[in-house]
Amino acid sequence: MTVAIYPGSFDPPTNGHLDIIGRAGCIFSKVIVAVLENRRKTPLFTVDERVMMLKRITAPYQNVEIDSFRGLLVDYARMKNAAVLIKGLRSTGDFEYELQMALVNRKLAPQVETLFMITNNDYSYLSSSIVKEIAAYGGDISAMVPMEIRDLVLQRIRANGEKQQF
Ligand code: ADP
Predict the structure, then answer these.
(1) What is the pLDDT of residues 12-22, one digit of tens each?
(2) Is 9 labeled as catalytic in the residue annotation?
(3) Is the pTM for the entire model greater than 0.90?
């Protein structure tokens, strides 16, 4: 049984994230989607809210689990007996950053493999920040986030008003 971890901020989860989760779920016995705590100082959603949204949108996937973690990803991977870290790649910018992370993680934990999954063409432009920015200016985000959480995102953006920074 090969367990894979898909880490990220997921603030909020997007269709791009969900696409990676679904594809990874077809490859591995178990995929743990792990919400990283404390990476951004001013997230739109709390970690608990992000976990709740991810649970809602991945409900149909039997082998997907949602969790959160703080500290080093490789320590969390060891704790979960995970052999694989999944990262999504949208651009060469993602690649530059993720290559360094993958090399560092291999140094720290050689037994944990990083696997890159190339974005679905339909979602290559998508990031959580883009979703927040478009929603803040009244744009239509219905093709960008799963239907089950769209209203939550819109409500939170409206409630935050001018305060939100992307
Ligand atoms: P972002 O705010 O950029 O969406 P996250 O930290 O939430 O960032 O992303 C978590 C992981 O999902 C990263 O590996 C990221 O590269 C990947 N990812 C994010 N959006 C997409 C997308 N549209 N297609 C493929 N992978 C993605």
Answers:
(1) 999 999 999 99
(2) no
(3) yes
